[in-house]
Design a protein that fits this description.
Elements: H1 3-27, E1 31-36, E2 39-44, E3 50-51, E4 60-61, E5 63-67, E6 76-77, E7 79-84, E8 87-94, E9 97-105, E10 111-115, E11 120-123, E12 125-128, E13 133-138, E14 143-148, E15 152-158, E16 164-167, E17 173-176, E18 178-184, E19 189-201, E20 204-210, E21 217-225, E22 230-240, E23 255-258
Length: 259
Amino acid sequence: MKPAMLLKAIISVLLFSSVTAAQAQTARPFKGAWYADGLYVDIDFYGKSISDPNSMDGDPCAGIIRIKPDDTSMAYTIENLKMSGNRATATAYFAEKDSRLSFEYMADGSLKMTSSDGFSYVDDELKKLPQNSYVLHRASPFNGEWKLAKGDGTLRINLYYKSMYEENAEGGSEMCYGTIYVAYGNGMKVDNSLIRARKIEGNKAVIEYVGGRDGNTYRAVLVYNPSTRQITVKSPVSVGASGGIKESFVVDGMVFTRR
C-alpha cells in the first residue's frame, strides 16, 4: 500500500473510532454527576442505581439533587421519570411541594435542569436558589480515586461536592472534599491531609488542605492530564502555620495514577 493511501486509511480508522466513542458517550446521556453553583446532581435514569439517602435502607433510585450541598445535608429524590432522547421529565419534593423537573442533555455534555417552582431548601428557614433553570457541568475530572505512582499513597476526592467524612488532625470527624494519603515505612508514618477548600478551573484545581501530621493549612495546585489520566501536585506551600514544626508528606511533583 502506498504511503498516501496508508495515511488515509489510518485517518479513517481514527475518525471512525472518535465518532464511535462520542456516540457511546451520548447513547445514555442521563448517567453521571453534574454540578453548578449551589447544585449537585447524581443520576442514573437507566439502571436506577443511585442510593437514596431518603430511604431507610438506601434503596436505589433514578437520582438525587442536592441544593447548597456544602451548607446542608439535604438530598431530594428524583421520581416519576419519563425520557425521550436527550430530554427527560420528572418530579422532586423540594421543602414544601412537589416540583416538576425537566432535563436536557446538551451537545457539549452539560445538563440543563429546570424546576417549575424553583429550587427550595431548608436552612434554618425556607430558602430558594435565585434561578429556576441551571446549566450544570460534568463533575469531572476531579472526582474519584488515584494511587501514588511511586510509593504508598492515595488521592481520594470529589472537588464538586463536599461529601466525605474523615478523621482530622485533632482526632475528630470532619466533612471535606477528599484526602491526600501518603505513608512511609510500611505504614508506620502516615500523613492523611483533608481538603477543606478548592477552586476549579478546567483541568487545574487550587486546593487548601490541613496536614494530618502537623495540623497546619497548606495550598497546592492539582493538575489533571487527560491523556494519561494522572494528577500531579504542584507548588505546595504553607498558608496558615499554627506554630511548631511543619511536617507534611505532600511534596511538589507527586504524581497520582487513576485506579
